[in-house]
């Protein structure tokens, strides 16, 4: 073979061969394990104003608009039905239109009514990122065997949360594109945060077919948590090298689960101490949005604020969890922020959980809170200054790129000459 017959390659010292092999890698930066608790950089008032206005935070969650995301989801959609397929395909087409990577996780589960087909939808903005924050909700509606209960549409449970997630994808998509470009150009200050992508997870089969038990509930979540915990990631498939022991589930930074949202006057509690700081960050986002007048809508001038969140008190422990899609992941060590109204909406699991149970100002506020909170979590910065109309900016950018490339070549040449490797108060 050519490689074996090359005397020049054989004569090189082993340490230099190793150095050349390492230097030949395009990017040798190891993925940090978990970012954990950290300070989130607060967006400026101007940046918040941009997120509030673009896109329109009402159009995607308006049940009177037949083209809104909410209207497309707000139909009876139990697992393994034609309507379930219609809703799933709508979610998929919406995210693929944004050029997100979309996976359909299909499987067969055993239910009290026999075998059923389930499909989770997993949408990832940047599959090459080494870690991800997962925002999730279930898209199925509860199964009822007889009429008229089988017309249940689950507006708060969880059509509205799914529509909010699609709204978030549209709002943050250009910011995520811009951040990825800055990361690839070497212009991001914090590469660990910048290498964290947003993943949207739409669970199938959250609802029990009969009575909620360990085997008749969260079908999609149980399947996916098990699959991810046993799926090892090849270290070279991501932008930065991963440890050989990394699984799909170990690269989830946080799972943020939305459920039973959209009705007026929700009350959200902090369930887990390890994500209490994220709960506080969401409260902070809500407060700053109020301070900038962003909650003014229609006849409501936004002059007073009744928070969606129950503030934590010093000494609070784990609140205890409500059974939901997060539990299989929690049991496998994933850090969870559970955003669920407690007490449940009064229309829970009744035919009254339809469009009439939803409140547009409430859903609009949720859209804005999610936009600001997730933008700050991911280190996204809306562009608040108009670009220059002359060519100065472009020339400066090109000059900078050429300078970076020149220094990269100089560094490469230099290395080859070496013989050894070198809180917010509410």
What does the model show?
- The structure is a single chain.
- The chain has a single domain (44-378), classed as Aminopeptidase.
- It has twelve helices and six strands.
- The chain has helices at residues 7-11, 14-23, 45-53, 69-73, 82-97, 155-184, 191-194, 219-229, 276-291, 327-330, 360-377, 392-416, and strands spanning 101-111, 114-124, 131-138, 196-203, 252-259, 336-340.
- It has a six-stranded mixed sheet with strand order 1-2-4-3-5-6, with helices on both faces.
- A hairpin with a 2-residue loop joins strand 1 and strand 2 (114-124).
- Helix 6 (155-184) runs parallel beside helix 11.
- 38% of the residues are buried.
Q: What is the element layout, followed by pairings?
A:
Blueprint: H1 7-11, H2 14-23, H3 45-53, H4 69-73, H5 82-97, E1 101-111, E2 114-124, E3 131-138, H6 155-184, H7 191-194, E4 196-203, H8 219-229, E5 252-259, H9 276-291, H10 327-330, E6 336-340, H11 360-377, H12 392-416
Parallel strand pairs: 3-4, 3-5, 5-6
Antiparallel strand pairs: 1-2, 2-4
Family: Belongs to the peptidase M28 family.
GO molecular function: glutaminyl-peptide cyclotransferase activity; peptidase activity; zinc ion binding
Keywords: Acyltransferase, Hydrolase, Metal-binding, Protease, Signal, Transferase, Zinc
Give the name of the CATH superfamily.
Zn peptidases
What coarse outline follows from CA principal-axis ratios? globular
At CATH level 2, the architecture is 3-Layer(aba) Sandwich
Pattern of helices and strands = HHHHHEEEHHEHEHHEHH
The CATH class is identified as Alpha Beta
Biggest pleated-sheet summary: 6 strands, mixed
* Protein structure class: alpha/beta
Radius of gyration: 24 Å
* Termini gap: 71 Å
| Helix content range | 25-40%
CATH level-3 fold name: Aminopeptidase
Give the amount of beta strand, in percent.
5-15%
